[in-house]
Amino acid sequence: MNADSKVAVVTGSSQGIGAALVAAFRARRYRVVAIARSMPASDDPDVLPIAGNIGDRRTAERAIFEGMARFGRIDTLVNNAGIFVSKTFTSYTVADLEAVLAVNTLGFFHITQLAIAEMEKRGSGHVVQFTTTLAEQASSRVPAVLAALTKGGLNAATRTLAIEYARRGIRANAVSPGIIRTPMHLPETHAALDGLHPIGHMGEISDIVRAVLYLEDAPFVTGEILHVDGGQSAGH
To answer: Which letter does DSSP use for residue 12 in this model?
Structure first.
């Protein structure tokens, strides 16, 4: 593959949305650095698997260092890795707090800081993170203070990065999904989860992939929080 082929870094890429994003970027002939705690080996020479905890800066350092060593550039970062713990506020434990902060906040900080440092050298790049509509539209049916605390922070960070780097050729955007149909949601919960969306049903992984690819193809869009949530952000 031509050394000018773009390179995407995708966190949380061993399954679900992350794995679908890796496949989508490869279909576009991007080379991919795929990061997950339990990332399997790949027989694709244009996929670099990195196994490790994204909340540990050493994982982020290894991903960017090895990605640059193999591919020579970083064009796009998708901060897909995330943890969601729904409990009443007083039921959260310190362990819950530390786990959510480690992935949602520290994981974002470490990999994004290192990726942007490489993007600056080329004068171009794109960073996308996943947030949640619950950070903007609280729901009495889904207690989510830790999601609001961490993902709400990502909303603010996205806008701040977009402005800080607007004149340096680097864009920052976010996708704010509703509940997405994945194997983690048992079939007996689907009816209730469908009902949490004004449109009447959960989203599909393909909805999120299309949103990320839209943002990737939209050079005049930065600082955007793109809601792919079946109408949740509009009201209830």
So the answer is: S
pLDDT, tens digit, 9 for 90 and up, residues 151-210? 999 999 999 999 999 999 999 999 999 888 887 788 888 998 888 888 999 899 999 999
Dihedral sign, CA of 92, 93, 96, 97?
positive
The CATH number linked to 49 is 3.40.50.720
Q: Is the pLDDT of residue 1 over 70?
A: no
CA dist., res. 10 & res. 123, Å (int): 20
Say if 190 falls within a structural domain.
Answer: no
Residues 66, 33 contacting (CB under 8 angstroms):
yes
CA distance 101 to 127: 19
Q: pLDDT at position 3, please?
A: 66
What stretches of 101-144 show up as alpha helix (H) in DSSP? 108-122
The verdict on residue 201 lying in a domain is no
Beta-strand relationship, 76-79 and 170-177: unpaired
Residue 193 lies in a domain: no
The count of domains in the chain is 1
Q: Per the structure block, which two tokens stand in for 66?
A: 């090895």
With a CB cutoff of 8 Å and minimum separation 6, the contacts of 34 are: 10, 13, 14, 18, 22, 42, 47, 48, 49, 50
Q: In the prediction, which pLDDT does 235 show?
A: 82
The helix/strand/coil state of 78 is strand
Three-state SS at 50: strand
Which residues touch 222 (CB under 8 Å, ≥6 apart)? Answer: 162, 166, 171, 172, 173
Tell me whether residue 13 is in a domain: yes
